[in-house]
Fold this protein.
Amino acid sequence: MPRTATPANPALLLDNQLCFALYSASLAMTKLYKPLLDELGLTYPQYLVMLVLWEGDGLMVTELGQRLSLDSGTLTPLLKRLEASGLISRIRAVEDERRVHVTLTAAGRKLRARADKVPGCVLAASQCSLSELVQLTRQVRQLRDRLAG
């Protein structure tokens, strides 16, 4: 297979692409999380839902969607699976049945203790100090917010 010439513009090199660095880092992070979350019986998106509920139980589906940047078409199947596994309950509001409250069950609250090891495993695998990871997380969030405009 013939090799093509290096682009005259270094901005067109794959290794100079921020999007590729973020994408490949995301793939590596997903690979790291998979066995950790398998032990908890959760997928990564389900883990994110549980994190939000462990921070503040009893949120509305719309609040969960806003916090996770997920639409209801994506979030509803996740919630149904979490409910079927006994980790959450979904309760329609009496005053407006379109509004659905999501609460942790006893099993969902108990799972939090088992999930406590996940952040430490991620920190160790990153080979970064805690302050480095905190700073990196802050920078990526700032980038996300700027891009979202």
Observations:
- The beta strands are 59-60, 88-92, 100-104.
- The two ends are 43 Å apart (CA to CA).
